[in-house]
Write a structure and sequence with these properties.
The chain has about 220 residues and is an alpha/beta fold. Helix content is about 50%, strand content about 15%. It has helices at about 10-20, 35-45, 60-70, 85-95, 110-120, 125-135, 145-150, 155-165, 170-180, 180-195, 200-210; strands spanning about 1-5, 25-35, 50-55, 75-80, 100-105, 125. This is DNA-binding response regulator.
Length: about 220
């Protein structure tokens, strides 16, 4: 069962999310928060697997709440849900440790799929948002520093996995391309994230472009 915490200052929105999620046998809503402070407290007390987080809330906003929630070890995955298609929200959410970012004009099916993706330890970013991340972070000459030096710690196979992650490949797709089992791929992905000090696959995409492992259009 995937435990989900809802954080949104609009009661009707939370009710709508609850109705959508509780139609699924594998999803359980374990709490509702009307602001960021409540979200942080409930994340600690209810131990959700995924937090659905609004951005604009009174008091502590969703971005600051995400920073506090993801600082826990282990902490839940945070899926940012917002009405506002703004680059600053997108980049701040990623920097805060969010594992996914969706707009509220999406479909219920997309929301349910996103929760399941995050619950199994993956990250989710719509293709159009990925392109914007790449355009911002893929800077010529970027990628120097401590984390960039850690690239040398990756084995050749782990470097192949990082390239595949940057292309947005799933574990199943990587397994097929590299002729590996999915369990082996999952182990490689985990090692790549650990060695590079990254939280999730979205961070790996940004890292790969920022440090020249792959290049836009390459």
């Amino acid at each position: 069962m995937i435990r989900v915490l809802l954080a949104d200052d609009h009661h009707l929105v939370r009710t709508g999310f609850r109705v959508i999620l509780e139609t699924e046998d594998d999803l359980e809503v374990v709490g509702e928060a009307a602001d960021g402070r409540q979200a942080v407290a409930l994340a600690a007390s209810t131990a959700p697997d995924v937090v659905l987080m609004d951005v604009e809330m009174p008091g502590l906003d969703g971005l600051d709440a995400t920073r506090l929630i993801t600082a826990a070890d282990p902490g839940p995955a945070v899926l940012i849900l917002t009405t506002f298609d703004r680059d600053d929200y997108l980049f701040e959410a990623l920097a805060a440790g969010a594992s996914g970012f969706l707009l509220k004009n999406g479909t219920p099916e997309a929301l349910i799929d996103a929760i399941r993706v995050l619950a199994r330890g993956d990250a989710l970013l719509a293709p159009e948002l990925t392109r914007r991340v790449i355009a911002t972070f893929a800077r010529p000459g970027g990628g120097r520093g401590t984390r960039g030096d850690r690239l040398a710690e990756l084995t050749p196979r782990e470097q192949e996995v990082l390239v595949a992650l940057a292309a947005g490949a799933t574990n199943a797709e990587i397994a097929t391309a590299l002729h590996l089992g999915e369990a082996t791929v999952k182990t490689h992905v985990s090692r790549v994230l650990t060695k590079l000090g990254l939280r999730d696959r979205t961070a790996a995409v940004v890292f790969a472009y920022e440090h020249g492992v792959v290049t836009p259009g390459g």
